[in-house]
Structures are given as structure tokens and as C-alpha cells.
Write a structure and sequence with these properties.
This protein has 461 residues and is α/β, with parallel strands linked by helices. Helices cover 42% and strands 18% of the residues. Helix 1 runs parallel beside helix 11 (366-398), helix 2 packs across helix 11 and helix 9 crosses helix 11. The relative contact order is 0.13. InterPro entries: ATPase_NBD (IPR043129), Hexokinase (IPR001312), Hexokinase_BS (IPR019807), Hexokinase_C (IPR022673).
Length: 461
């Protein structure tokens, strides 16, 4: 009896090699295959079934790991080297200098408006009394009451939501709503019988004409309220306070613009080569296409949508959720930046809540969770590195390399890794510096109230 030929088996092993990258970068994993031919001894007929199984296993492994390579290739587009950040810093510095030029035509060439402030004094400790502040600059706004006595500052505040329809409404509708919220705050804190100075923080590009007047240059941050651009925002607020019947209790004594206008950096196309097709899609579908391009790569307003678009791209290629996504996941702006923070927390229950909220929990594998984490990390790291590049440019401009910088905003406050990503990037690109980032709690509101205190004291004198 002639023995059948020995079956030929292929042993396939995937060797994963983690490439060590500079800190604050996405770690990439590459896969390579080794194929070894092994001649087995004579096997029973039952063992021949192992041959198609081995082939199937190889095909599955190949598909899975090739898919992983494709995922990493997509995420590689967001990997900004230190050299790229240095290029951004150089371009940003040139725009700073143009924006500060005495030559009006040169200033006009800079997308970054270097706006003067009319705040000419800071608190000296002699301020006493109660002061109000309105801090408007995002999807929520704050009304604050600051009480200053014997060098101590006490604060009471309320946060009011701004629905999307208000952000794209008309001037009277928006400011009447704000005035109504101020009225509620005044009544709640029993200060309706006296007039208190109010500092108005308006976190949008404003051409100030005086300490108590300023024209909105353009809306940013997803706002597009008709009838406000080129209008005096203090006047609009005062008129709304009169209509609401609360003007006797509130005296707007200072307009404060805390906007860092680097959000428009790149609007002239100076670094388009560093933007991705995902950035272009977010910009195209925004309320202000072609504007605030730097902001759209950093801000919490856009970070969640960027992650969603990347995930949809991976799902279309059947690299995520096996290509099966819910109708909710397909909905624009449904993946909140809060979800990015939850995924970046690496806490299992938070990630599961995100998947449930997005209605994809049933089709999600462990591999999908890992890919989702990588997407959120890649976009978060890029945003933090770009923000750090902006901060580093300001540090270089001032020449103060040893400093502490107060940072406000929900992304910095609530994202569990964002501060670390920024801090490590600053160490990379400013090795000669000693820059510390710290969270500023209600900095814009407190600052506006204290400026109101200084302004009201100046009026008395």
C-alpha cells in the first residue's frame, strides 16, 4: 500500500512590533508575516480537515491585521511631528508680527487680528462691594456675582444653556434670552433693588471702540446670529435689559474680550498641507466654511464630530463595527466631545455607555473598542499638540520662558488626558522653557467682574 503524500501545513505567525515614538505621539503597530512550510507525518483522515481550517485561519489573520494596518494608516494622517509643529509656530509668529505691524496694509494680510483692549488698570486691593459678570462664549454662558470685602472674594454663579436654535437665531432673540437669564439671577440673589456694575465677557472677535462699546467683527464657535455683526454688542445687551425690565439693576461698565484670535490661523491657506480630508469635511459642513480653520482642529466644539467622521470612514471600509453602524452614528454632531473624553478615560463602564448611547453596543467587538480608543487618542493628541504650539509661540513672542499659564475651557477641564498631552508637547518643542499649565476656574467671569470693579471705581473718581 502506497502511503499518501504527507499533507503540507502552513504555520502562520503574526509578529507585532511596537515602534517606540517620541512622547505625545500615537504609537503605531506594524505586522509582518512569517510563513513556514512543515511536513507532517502520516495523519488520520480526520486531520485533513485541519488544512482548510489553517487556510481559513490565515485568511482571517491576514484580513484582520491588514485591516489594522489600514486603521493605522488612516490615523497616521493626524500624527504631527515636532518638525511640523515648528513649521506651524514659525508661520504663526509671522502672522503675529503682521497683525501687530504699524502698516495697515500689512496688518490686513494677517488672518490673526491683534485686537487692542481698553482695560487700562488692574485691581489693586482697594475694591469693595458687589459686582456682576456675564461670560458669553460657547454653548453655555455664566452669570456671576462677585462680593469683595477685606481682600476676600466670594462668588455665586449660575450656568445657563444656549440651545442650537438660539446660536443661529436673530439678535433680539438671543439677547432677550440672555437678559431674561440675568433677570432670573438678579431675583434669585435678591439684588433687584440696587444697580450693580456688570462686566461683559464676549468671547468673539470684537473691534472695541471704548471700554463700554465694541463691534462684532464676525461670529465664531458655531454661532451665526443675524443682526449682530458690525453692531455694538453692549448696546444690544442694554436694549434687551430694558425690554426685560432689569436695566435698573444692571449697569454694563466694561466689555471684556478674552478671545485669542489664533482660531483664524491658516484661513489664508498657509498650512493647508497639514490638514486632512476629515478636516476639510468638518469645515465644509460648518456654519462658517473657510474660516477659523485652526480652531476647527482644536476646539471641543469640533473634536467629537472629527472622531465620528473618521469612525464612519473606517466603518465604510468594514474596519470598524464590521461595517454596521446605527442611524444615530450616521447623524452629524451626534458623537459629543464628552464621548471622546469618556473613551480616553479608559474606564470600561464609560466606554460601554458611549457605545450604548451611539446604539452600536451589540455589534462592537474588543477590536472595535481598541480602534475607537485609538481614533479618540489620535484626534485628542493632535488637538493638544496644536494648542501647545500656539501657547509656545506666545511664550517665544513674550520672551518669558518661565511662566504659568491659566487655561479655561471644558476640553482642558474635562478631558482626562488633554493637559498631559499639552504639557508633554511643550516640553518637546520648548526644551529651554519651564511652562506650567493650570486650570482656571471661571477665569473669564471672575476677571470680568473684577474689571467691572476697577471701572466703577474709576467712574467715581
Amino acid at each position: 500500500m502506497v502511503e499518501p503524500p504527507s499533507p503540507l501545513f502552513h504555520q502562520y505567525s503574526a509578529l507585532c512590533v511596537v515602534e517606540r515614538r517620541p512622547k505625545c505621539k500615537v504609537s503605531f503597530v506594524s505586522a509582518r508575516f512569517q510563513t513556514t512550510q512543515i511536513r507532517s507525518p502520516l495523519l488520520s483522515s480526520n486531520m485533513f480537515s485541519a488544512i482548510p481550517f489553517a487556510r481559513s485561519l490565515f485568511e482571517t489573520l491576514t484580513k484582520a491585521l491588514t485591516g489594522r494596518d489600514e486603521v493605522l494608516e488612516v490615523l497616521g494622517a493626524f500624527d504631527l511631528s515636532n518638525e511640523s509643529l515648528e513649521e506651524i509656530m514659525s508661520l504663526l509668529m509671522k502672522d503675529f508680527e503682521k497683525g501687530l505691524s504699524a502698516d495697515e496694509s500689512e496688518r490686513a494680510q494677517s488672518p490673526i487680528k491683534m485686537l487692542p483692549t481698553y482695560v487700562r488698570a488692574i485691581p489693586d486691593g482697594s475694591e469693595v462691594g458687589d459686582f456682576l459678570a456675564l461670560d458669553l462664549g460657547g454653548t453655555n454662558f455664566r452669570v456671576l456675582k462677585i462680593s469683595v470685602e477685606d481682600g476676600k472674594v466670594n462668588m455665586e454663579s449660575d450656568i445657563f444653556p444656549l440651545a442650537q436654535d438660539l446660536m443661529i437665531s436673530e439678535a433680539n432673540i438671543l439677547f432677550d434670552y440672555i437678559a431674561g437669564c440675568i433677570s432670573l439671577f438678579v431675583k434669585k440673589n435678591k439684588i433687584s433693588e440696587k444697580s450693580l456694575p456688570l462686566g461683559f465677557t464676549f468671547s468673539f472677535p470684537v473691534k472695541q471702540l471704548s471700554l463700554t462699546s465694541g463691534l462684532l467683527i464676525r461670529w465664531t464657535k458655531g454661532f451665526s446670529v443675524a443682526g449682530v455683526e458690525n453692531e455694538d454688542v453692549v448696546k444690544l445687551l442694554h436694549e434687551a435689559l430694558v425690554r426685560t425690565g432689569v436695566s435698573a439693576s444692571v449697569d454694563v461698565v466694561a466689555l471684556v474680550n478674552d478671545t485669542t484670535e489664533w482660531g483664524a490661523f491658516g484661513d489664508n491657506g498657509s498650512w493647508n498641507h497639514l490638514r486632512t480630508k476629515y478636516d476639510e469635511q468638518v469645515d465644509k459642513e460648518s456654519l462658517n466654511p473657510g474660516m477659523q480653520l485652526f480652531e476647527k482642529m482644536i476646539s471641543g466644539m469640533y473634536l467629537g464630530e472629527l472622531c465620528r467622521i473618521v469612525c464612519m470612514n473606517l466603518a465604510d471600509k468594514k474596519l470598524l463595527f464590521n461595517g454596521q453602524v446605527s442611524d444615530k452614528f450616521k447623524t452629524k454632531n451626534c458623537f459629543l466631545t464628552k464621548f471622546v473624553s469618556d473613551v480616553e478615560s479608559h474606564e470600561r463602564h464609560k466606554i460601554e455607555e458611549v457605545l450604548k448611547e451611539m446604539e452600536v453596543e451589540k455589534q462592537t467587538s474588543e477590536s472595535d473598542i481598541e480602534i475607537l480608543q485609538r481614533v479618540c487618542a489620535a484626534l485628542s493628541i493632535r488637538a493638544a499638540r496644536l494648542a501647545a504650539a500656539g501657547v509656545a509661540t506666545i511664550v517665544k513672542k513674550t520672551g518669558n520662558y518661565t511662566t504659568t499659564i491659566a487655561v479655561d475651557g471644558s476640553l482642558f477641564k474635562k478631558h482626562p488626558q488633554f493637559k498631559r498631552y499639552m504639557q508633554e508637547t511643550l516640553s518637546d518643542i520648548l526644551p529651554q522653557g519651564d511652562v506650567t499649565l493650570m486650570l482656571s476656574e471661571d477665569g473669564s467671569g471672575k476677571g470680568a467682574a473684577l474689571i467691572a470693579a476697577v471701572a466703577s471705581k474709576s467712574k467715581k473718581h
